[in-house]
Amino acid sequence: MTSEISLFVNPAAGRGRGAHAAQPAARALRDAGYSVRTVLGSDADDALRRAREAVAAGTGALIAVGGDGLISLALRAVAGTGTPLGVVAVGTGNDFGRALGLPVRDPAAAGRIAADALRNHTIRELDLGRVGGRWFGTVLASGFDSRVNDRGNRMRWPTGRFKYDLAMVAELAAFKPVPYRITLDDGAEREVEATLVAVGNGPSYGGGMRICADAVMDDGLFDVTVVGECSRATLLKVFPRVYRGTHLSHPVVTVHRTAKITLAAPGLTGYADGEPLGPLPLTAQCVPGAVRVLAPGR
User: Fold this and answer.
1) Cys-Cys link to 66, which of 50, 70, 75, 112 (CB 3.0-4.6 A)?
2) What's the CA gap between 31 and 35, in Å, rounded?
3) What is the pTM for the complete model shown?
4) CA distance from start to end of the chain
C-alpha cells in the first residue's frame, strides 16, 4: 500500500470545525510516516469528482474530515474499490463515526486511529445501502422525519439546527399517518398506515437518534423500523425514547430485517445519510462488504 494518502476535507463542517480539524488529523498521519495530500472541492459535485480521481490514482486511503454529509460523498468515492476509508468525525451529527466507535470532534485521535489501522492492516469490511447509483452508510429515512427535513430545507430563517426544531413543530401541527406499500426480500407486499419508515444499515441518524438501534453494519441486512399509525400524543411520548433506542419495544413499532426493500408512499422524499435521494418509491439493497473502513474491530 502506498504511503501517500488523501485527506478529504469539508471546511464548512460543524460551523468551520472541518478546516480546523484537518490540521491535527494531517499532523497525526504525517507523524506516523504517511504523505498527506488534501482533497478539497468547490462544491459537493466537485469534491466527489476530486475524491474519485484520488481513488482512481491509487491513493493509499481516503480520510474524510467532516460530518455525515462529507462521509456520504466519501462512501460514494470508495465503495466497491478496495480503497480504505478513514473517518475524522467533526460535523454536527457524526452518526457514521459513532456507529464505528470512533472519536467524535477529536481529529488528532481519529487521525492516529486511521494511521494505526493502516500500519497494522486492521481494516473492517462493512455493508452499505445502495439506491440506484447512490450509496449510504447509516439510515434511509422516510415519513415524518423526511417531511421535517423537507420543511427545514425550505426555511431561510433561522439557521442551524434550530430551524429543524421549528420545522418539527410545524409538521406536528399538520401530522397524519401515510399509507405505505412495503416490499421486503420475501417478495410480499405489506400495506400499512405509518408515521415513518427508517431503513438502517447503521443504528442512528440525526446526531444520535437510535431509530434502528439494533442494526449491525456487517451482517448483510437492513434493520427496518416501522412506526405505525399513532396519535400526535403517542408520537410525542415515543419520540424521546429514540435517543436510547427503547422505542423499539413500543406496540406501535415493528422491526423487519431484510437485504432488500422497496418503499412506496405518496408525497414523500427519501433521505439517506441526511441527504435527499428523491421521491418514493425507492428500492434499497444492502451490499455486504461494500466498503473497507479504518476502524477498531467490534
Assistant:
1) 70
2) 9
3) 0.92
4) 24
